[in-house]
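re: ur msg from earlier - yeah i can do the adenosine-5'-triphosphate complex, just paste it... oh wait u already did. ok heres what im feeding in:
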Amino acid sequence: MPCYESQKQRRKKLSSDKPSIAELKKRLMDLVDALKETEKTVSSEVDDTAADSHERQGRADRIVGVDIGTSRIVSLVQKADGDISGDLDLNGFVRVPHSEVTLQMLKKNNMKYQLSGADIAVLGYGAQEFAALMNGEMQRPMKVGLLTPDEAEAVPMIRAIIRSLVRQTSNPEDTLCFSIPAPRQGYESELIYHRAIFQKLFTAMGYNTMSISEGMAVVLSELAKENYTGIGISMGAGMCNICFSFLSVPVLVYSIPKGGDDIDISVSRVTNESISRVRLYKENSLDLERAPVNKIEEALHIFYEDLILMLLKGIAHVFMQAQTEHLPKLNRALSVVIAGGTSMPKGFMMRFERMLKQINLSIEIANVRLARDPLRATARGCLIRAGVGD
Ligand SMILES: Nc1ncnc2c1ncn2[C@@H]1O[C@H](COP(=O)(O)OP(=O)(O)OP(=O)(O)O)[C@@H](O)[C@H]1O
Ligand SMILES: [Mg+2]
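and the outut:
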């Protein structure tokens, strides 16, 4: 294919005049300066992330950031005129028997679907609605941040959801960066496979494709004024991704295999409520600031505390280990930024900070804050990375 050919040629050219790390850092700093000047933040739909990145991307028509999460896929696109738009959908599907009536109903309601053998697979938010109607749960193509091997249709389903959010391109200068989870011991092969599948998918869609670890994406999105020095955390559905970055270099990148899904499952077990009811309650009514007013809330408080404690103990352990090895000498306190849907209930930050005070982290923390838009911070970091280029 001609488009593929030209990408190959471009890569060959890039490898011969690859920019140095210092040059990449400078580009990153320039990008952030442009961002600071506008003083806009990523709001729900529009952002201004990489104002001048198209110049650096040659004749790019668009740069794209995609957060591929266990429960949600978020995309942000910046066009050549600087305009930024975003879209997101749930990373799930439900199979329903094929019928003309169902098909018409899906079309009429603009619901996403994919024909799948004798069934119709309803995708994204539509799948959640169908699952609720059928008193069931939607299926997920991913678990704990990675493509699930036990769902034969994981790849076709996620491909269909992605294609509904990201447009194909014929311009080989267009760059896309997608998020990947941090490596986890025992899951090295799964991560290589996961990354390769998406690399292939986006390359086939015409993009010059790259990936970034989710924690580092949070750092790029939120720690510009700290010169990308600090800790970025994404608390998602399947896992928590953590990155300690020093002057934009990811020094410690790791994950813990627990997130919002685990809270839902644990609360469902001890309260005998369905997982979806627990999740709805958690997302719409939970307030971690006030004393629990019922059994679901009591259990949600307990399992939130358990997750935060695990996260903090993990940070303490990892920094302790690293301090004797390769950690740069830190002469200042670090900022911590938390993103991801699991950080969104009311009172979360208060609870987090209170628990942080009780843990000896062996590093000094200057401040802890919530990302400006917790559900889009990773996609925003991906967009910034795509704007910097190879
Ligand atoms: N307002 C809210 N309050 C509490 N939890 C929420 C809220 N909104 C979303 N969540 C939870 O956040 C999680 C999804 O977060 P997010 O979209 O960041 O995860 P993800 O990126 O898809 O997953 P991962 O990064 O683990 O692969 C789910 O567990 C969801 O129930
Ligand atoms: Mg995530």
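cool cool. The longest strand covers residues 72-79. ping me if u need the other ligands too
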